[in-house]
Amino acid sequence: MIIELVSLVLTLVFIVASAELFTNGIEWLGQRLQLSEGVVGSVLAAVGTALPETLIPVVALVFFSRQHGVEVGIGAIAGAPFMLSTLTLGLCGIACLVFTATKRRQPGIEIKKAVISRDLKFFICAYTLALLASFLPAHPIIRVVVATALVSIYPYYLYVCFKHEGEVGECPETLYFDRLFKKGSERLHLIITQIVLALLGIVGGAYMFVGCIQNLSDDFNISPLVLSLIVTPIATELPEKINSVLWLRGNKDTLAIGNVTGALVFQSCFPVAFGVAFTNWNLDHGTQLSGAVAVVSAAIYLTLLNYSRLKPQHLMCGAFIYACTIATIIYWAPVMPLRHH
Fold first, then answer.
1. Residue 17: exposed, middle, or buried by beta-carbon count in 10 A (0-12, 13-18, 19+)?
2. CATH number 1.20.1420.30 given to 2-335
3. pLDDT digit string, tens, across residues 315-331
4. Residue 98: is its pLDDT beyond 60?
């Protein structure tokens, strides 16, 4: 058991390191292509940091046993939007308040309303559709139609993002491969090489992570679904948390919050579509609760944003909502069996 716990920690470190390498490369790709701050935050950085929690359910469903693979996969799929919309945004609010108190940034939060509002609207629409799909008959044609609709949302989202391009963002941190090869961070082939190698690292780490989750669930007699719903997002979303906190310290609020809300859109489209298409998508009550909380939280933030009342204190409440929801799921887990159509 100790060896498995150590293996889990090492695997998490490897996944986060690979994701950080990928994000750094993606940011330089955005700089190289002269993309706006909103696109880099909501699209490139968001997709990069969302890759670990996206690939883990895919790996779980493809390579592992039917029972454990489905439970780990669904838990990871549902856990990501839930944590992003509550705990991650909550930590952003806490970071704002801490940096303000220590005089490291200006008080309040200054974001491009159109960028964050757009992301939240797309997320609410896509994830609501995904949750409603769990109540539909488990017919292959119905599942494929819903999955196709979810995947189709993201290209339209990209169209809207690129249609409203703004100013190019600031130059990111030095490309990691440039520190090794000293060829200049603007070299496109160096950027692409770093991105590809990082992606391979994320895939390999995801495979090892799912195996660790499966073994620990057997050792502790805990449902793989519950374990992956809680543990997987905490580990795989570290890049979003770290990047957003650093951007908030530098008063780059749109990049920070857009990194999270952009990941919400991505997570509600591709991973969920994969789950709908390749599983029966029978969500237990705990998973449904996490999904409902994610949608309601996003709707509350959207309302506050539209009335120009969104403050760090409001974001901070997300951490409390996350803790209460997790406590409820753990408490009721033994009496929350999967529904069968």
1. middle
2. yes
3. 999 999 999 998 888 77
4. yes
